[in-house]
Amino acid sequence: MEPKPQRRLVVGNWKMHGLRRDLSELAGIGEAAAACPAVDVGIALPATLILPAADAAPALWIGAQDVHSRPSGAFTGEVSATMIRDAGGRFTLIGHSERRAAGQESNTTIKAKAEAARQEGLSAIVCVGEDAATRADGQAERAVSAQLLDSLPEGAAPSWLVIAYEPIWAIGTGRTPSTDEIADIHAALRRACVERLGDPSLTVRLLYGGSVSAANASEILRLPNVDGVLVGGASLRASGFTPIIRLAQNAAHLGPNNAQKDSAP
Ligand code: PGA
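ok -> structure tokens follow
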């Protein structure tokens, strides 16, 4: 399944969770996806599960959580875009804050990874987000825009790109920014995208991530320039994830694409 721009996108991130037996969750998630035609549904899986998941759940957009910037070579423990594609993956997260922290990844590294994904025909979900101190200093918008501009490959056609705003302090904490704060950052990310990639990037989907659940997804998915959500903990079980998919379907009835309505001249 290849997602189409201008539809809502709900992506689960299983992080380092999941054994083959947990793939049974994909049946329920796939059913919800089929029942919600205005929503694309993806899951970023541990590398070991990409191949069986792509076989088991063709209706879902299956992807990876990270990628190396080179197609092959002496990089023990790494997984390339070519390998993800070969296993049936269609996208990869890039620059998730847990990867940025664990691998001390710079924006330059993330840009190289995004370029590698693009060359292999994988979509990239490039993640950005501020830490708590930056938010407290009132610098979140500036920091996140700079992070995005430094992470995007030059001249990238927007069709392969998704951007996720994930404030680090909101991930796995049960805390989220206010709806105004999310809307402000997403507007800034849209401006940065257009500055770098031009008007075609009005269709690039901007996801919010960080403690998304069935309790808060509805109001988040109704914000301008929020085209979907990236969901960690609540995506591990179909019982937690499928209500979010349904809420995205309901939000989609508000219009095909918030971004175009709000950003077009
Ligand atoms: P969370 O994680 O939904 O558990 O906060 C989101 C993420 O890290 O992508």
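Residues 8-69+76-240 form a domain with the TIM Barrel fold (CATH 3.20.20.70).
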